[in-house]
TrEMBL record:
One of its GO terms (cellular component) is mitochondrion. Its main location: mitochondrion. This is Ribosomal protein S12, mitochondrial. Residues 10-23 have a biased composition (Basic and acidic residues). PROSITE patterns: RIBOSOMAL_S12 (PS00055). It is found in: Mitochondrion.
């Protein structure tokens, strides 16, 4: 506990808050190039293989982005669009890639939640 004299001399230091969206430059989406595509296992209670990609954004930031949905056609040097949204059980993964835009294809034959996975409307008979 500082004395009154110490507070007069130095004052209190403001607590610095870190910016969670440094890489995005306050933009809703950013374009980037895939550097590496890999899988990663999630944190403790969960068990799976999360598909992630290291992406270099147009502002030269390198980030890890999650690839949502089942299956993907992504590989190195593919151009992708990245949005925000962290993956709770994968440390360091703070963004998602947008399906059905640029080089990342949407999911075929998906009927529910199609807009999130770039799936087209099924043909009705």
């Amino acid at each position: 506990m500082p004395t009154k004299n110490q507070l007069i001399r130095h004052g209190r230091e403001e607590k610095r808050c870190t910016d969670r969206t440094r890489a995005s430059d306050q933009c809703p989406q950013k374009q980037g190039v895939c550097l590496r595509v890999s899988t990663r296992t999630p944190k403790k209670p969960n068990s799976a293989l999360r598909k992630i990609a290291k992406v270099q954004l147009s502002n030269r930031h390198d980030i890890f982005a999650h690839i949502p949905g089942e299956g993907h056609n992504s590989q190195e040097h593919s151009i992708v669009l990245v949005r925000g949204g962290r993956v709770k059980d994968s440390p360091g993964v703070k963004s998602h890639r947008i399906r059905g835009v640029k080089d990342l294809l949407g999911i075929l034959d998906r009927r529910k939640g199609r807009s999130k996975y770039g799936a087209e409307r099924p043909k009705s008979k």
